[in-house]
Amino acid sequence: MSADLEQFYQIFFEEASELLTEMDTRLLELDMHSPEPENLNAIFRVAHSIKGGADTFGFTDMAEMTHMLESLLDKLRKGELTLCSEMVDAFLQASDVLKQQLNDHSGKGQVNADEARLASQKLKELMTTTATEEAIPTALAATSAAAELNRMAGSVLSKAPDEQPVSSTRSSTTKEISTKIPVTYRINFSCQDLSEAVMTKLLTNLARQGSLENLNNPQQQDSCCLKLTTMESEEDIWETLAFIVDPVTLAIEAEAIAQEPADNIAPAADKPAVMMDVPPNGTTTETIKNGHSNSSIKTTPEPARPKAAASSESSSIRVSIEKVDQMINLVGELVITQAMLAQTASQITPVIHERLLNGLNQLERNTRDLQKSVMSIRMMPISFVFSRFPRVVRDVAAKLGKKVELKTVGEGTELDKGLIEKITDPLTHLIRNSLDHGIESPEKRVALGKPAQGTITLRASHQGGSIVIEVSDDGAGLNRERILSKACERGLPVSETMSDQEVWMLIFEAGFSTTEIVTDVSGRGVGMDVVKRNIHALGGRVEIDSSLGQGTKISIRLPLTLAILDGLSVAVGDQLFVVPLTYITESLKPQAADIRTVRGLGRVVQVRGEYLPVIALHEVLGLQPAMTQIHDGILIILDAEGSKVAMLVDTLAGQHQFVIKSLESNYRRVQGVSGATIMGDGRVALILDAAALVSMVKRTLVDAA
Amino acid sequence: MQQTQTHAAGSDSLSSIQDSANSEFLAFRLGKEEYGIDILKVQEIRGYDAITKIANAPEFIKGMVNLRGVIVPIVDMRIKFNLGEVHYDQFTVVIILNLSGRVVGIVVDSVSDVINLEMEQVHATPEFGAAVDTEYIMGLGTVEDRMLVLIDIEKLMSRQDMGLLETDS
């Protein structure tokens, strides 16, 4: 039996961990004084879904824990209990335990038995103690009771800021009804891939929920048809089945019962929508994530027929990342081939081959569109990362006795999934750092005339071809003197004349910490260097902006995607190089008189009243240029890391999109080169790392001075 | 100490040949010498064409080529071993190697044939002292009057002085 079920374990693990994340987000969103019924319902459903799955797979510890959660939540939902912060804490604790249990079952971790016992004990306590408080007519209870009445009446809660109050109220109404009247459901699904043992187990599970009637022999047919009369809601049945049966083929229909008002069947269509409901910032269902979809249901506020609801389940699919990557690679090749064709076609006479050229133009447009849509598959909103930080901030702030509010801006900003996964750890570290070192204690803040509650702002935005993520706090800021003296102690090369920027960058040195006390949050000096290294590995850069007493802002600049780049190809000698467009401000043909030398060493060029250092690409790369005089070439003005440099090349070749290929997969890293690409004629061209070139120049200028 | 180590390494690689009973080797020429590499490491053989230079690379790394979308570095063995005349024409041969996932091309004078060597045809590498580094030489194969220097190409290519791999800095 277990061998058959094992193949579904992975799906359960994935879904359960997604659901737990959702639960955390929802819990943190809860307003202590007037919890939104929709939010409570969502948390209840999450607990319920996990319970259903855990039960099916025999993870009794998880099932027990979620059962307790569920019963407490159910009371909250019905207004029998009022929410207090203690409960939220207990819920979060329980969710942590669930995560541990989940890891334990998937063989990735161990359960802390004490913690688990503590969590369940706390839940039990809350159940009993709060039950007595019920009688006390507090103002809070009254409001929630009123809200409950509203829901029972099925009227719309106009003040609820939720986006679909209509459907949520209706579904909760039917939940009341469906739990009271036994309903007969007709269940249809494909059992082609299911073994006999799994089927038997499934049928016993179902039989436990009510009276089950097997309409055909599942062993003989590909599809199975069952009739179930039960007190349970359709949602429950769905969950019993969904982990085992392919949800696409699963159809559950409530059989019309004469006494039942026709309106009650309709909400059945809403059920899957509610079950799969997603928080407004979209933590679970984005792009390739969720097996079920809510989009189509969300856009149909009118009650749909049950059939329609079942078919819309397939509007999103779970695809393995390898398949997507393979597709991206293939499209990359297609773009190269298309560019190759375009280059060949530019040599033929347009008059004779007009139709061919039109076709090629069409091909170019289609290729671009295809590329764009394929790339967008990998794109995900950054809310995936951001959504975990309220929890981090809450926990760490509580541990440190600080009051901190976390603001997030631009959660919808999309970036590559690979980046999302890799940016989480560095960001967590930066936030912990801000909490520990940045934000002062409430007393100190009040003494300084600041509000007692500190603010950490997470902001994501697109800037040109890159994405910028900022972590800023209104805390103490960095102390220049302290960092400098600490750096001196550690024997780092520092001087009083260093710019603020350079001083701030010292905190990224390995083992650097200015705190006297090492806490378990941070202060050991490990971490910031890892942050910097991780971000550099992603092709990104870190910048710090800070003023003493005002706060610190750390900006991370990352490339939007790791695969495609807009660039300008330039020629030096017989070689072509690609310069990323994001670094280029302009290009110009210099006059002989524009170029001057400084002390016979450095060359500078005057551009719009500004003197910029000149770097000759052929000198840096050791090539033989085609031109002999500087004014025969072209100067490209690069702007990287805040400083400008004029780069001398022979000619400009053209502007294209380039598919970035790694040099490192078969070779090693090359100084001044960030990667390679394949040109239209099939040749390889190196992509220049403008930032490295600029800093190279800076270094040589310093050496010369 | 140094000598015993090299000796141990030599007999190790010899036994690795013997493990695979009879092995097939691709024989190629560098100047007047004949070399053999494990045929299973060879992905394909192609001509020498459009190559892109790499900045500040050692002289024997000729550059990069596009092999159906994969960017492959090319090493000229003639320069590396200081053998044969270095010129490039339509007869120049590039052997594309696949060394545990990494693809590298080597330029040689010519490829002669594929030779099946029995265990008894392979002799251990004699000690040359400091004059010749024998670490990557698996043994010497004899076929009639020919002598093949059998190279553990993977070991050779991953050596620090080849500059193909990332150095830990």
Q: How would you characterize the overall build of this protein?
A:
- The complex is a heterodimer of chains A (about 700) and B (about 170).
- Chain A is built from 23 helices and 22 strands.
- In chain A, strand 8 (about 455-465) and strand 9 (about 465-475) form a beta hairpin.
- Chain A has five domains: about 1-155, Four Helix Bundle (Hemerythrin (Met), subunit A) (Up-down Bundle), CATH 1.20.120.160; about 165-320, no CATH class; about 325-380; about 390-560, Heat Shock Protein 90, CATH 3.30.565.10; about 565-705, CheA-289, Domain 4 (OB fold (Dihydrolipoamide Acetyltransferase, E2P)).
- In chain A, helix 1 (about 1-30) packs antiparallel against helix 2 and helix 10 packs parallel to helix 12.
- By secondary structure, chain A is of the alpha+beta class.
- The termini of chain A are far apart.
- Chain B is α+β, with helices and mostly antiparallel strands and about 170 residues long.
- Chain B has a single domain (about 1-160), classed as CheA-289, Domain 4 (OB fold (Dihydrolipoamide Acetyltransferase, E2P), Beta Barrel).
- Chain B has helices spanning about 1-20, 75-80, 155, and strands at about 25-30, 35-40, 40-45, 60-65, 70-75, 95-100, 100-110, 110-115, 120-125, 135-145, 145-150.
- In chain B, the strands form two sheets. In chain B, strands 8-1-2-11-10-9 form a six-stranded mixed sheet.
- In chain B, a hairpin with a 2-residue loop joins strand 4 (about 60-65) and strand 5.
- The radius of gyration of chain B is 16 Å and the shape is globular.
- The relative contact order of chain B is 0.23.
- The interface of A and B includes residues 662, 665, 676, 681 and 686 of A.
